Amino acid sequence: MSLSLPQMCAATVLVACVLAMSGCKFVKTADQQAEAAAGAFDPDKLVADIWDAKVVPYLKGRAGSFQDVSALVSGNLDAAAQKYGHKEKQGNAPWTFAASVKGKIVAAETKSRAGSVDVDVDGDGKADVRVAIGPAIRGTAIRDALDFVNFNEFKNQIEWAQYGKAFNTRINTLSLEKLPRDGLVGREVEALGAYPLPAAGQLPQFVPVTITVGG
Q1: For residues 3 and 143, which has the higher predicted lDDT (pLDDT)?
Q2: First to last CA, the chain
Q3: Whole-Å CA distances, 64 to 37, 48, 170, 191, 196
Q4: Residues 205/196, Cβ–Cβ less than 8 Å
Q5: Coil, strand, or helix at residue 35?
């Protein structure tokens, strides 16, 4: 079938438009970009929004002294879990216990980014618990100690992990980066936080939400 001259011109214009559009990219408007940004996952903001109102008050109300918590863990894990502990129903996460630590620093590791101090809480001169002093913090003890957050509130494991890391970032910003790094051994320390159930023979790895180091 032959085309008339006007039809051929129209077809040529149509092909040219299609080819031109194939090389174009659609750019979101400012409103669309703002809407997307507003809905983006922001774990640091999520943690900041609940820190003072929920996280610290919850741990204060839930925590026992480290001596009391650890003694009950050793004697009756179920009772300790009910009184001081929490763990996610999904997966194989260990029990995590809210506690307060008060004692003397008997050893300090400040060369590693995952800095820590070993604390004697019963006065026998031996370390009973290892307290993280950052700037890097291993694990997600604070997230895992809270009974008002859970994995099902997040899209996937990546968001859940980022949320746990956001707690550690806030702890370091608010408390840990202000701590002294020299002359720690022999000084008194007080801290509120949480620790996961340790493996047999291992020091509990305690993460503080508040911490003070005395003279």
Answers
A1: 143
A2: 98
A3: 41, 25, 23, 12, 14
A4: yes
A5: helix
Q: What is the pLDDT of residues 5-51, one digit of tens each?
A: 444 444 444 444 444 444 544 455 554 444 445 569 999 999 999 99
Question: What domains lie within the chain, and their CATH numbers?
Answer: 43-213 (2.40.50)
Q: Is 68 left (phi over 0), alpha (psi -120 to 50) or beta?
A: alpha
Residue 151 burial (10 A CB sphere; 0-12, 13-18, 19+): middle
Structure tokens at 49: 């929004």
pLDDT at 9: 42
139: left (phi over 0), alpha (psi -120 to 50) or beta: left
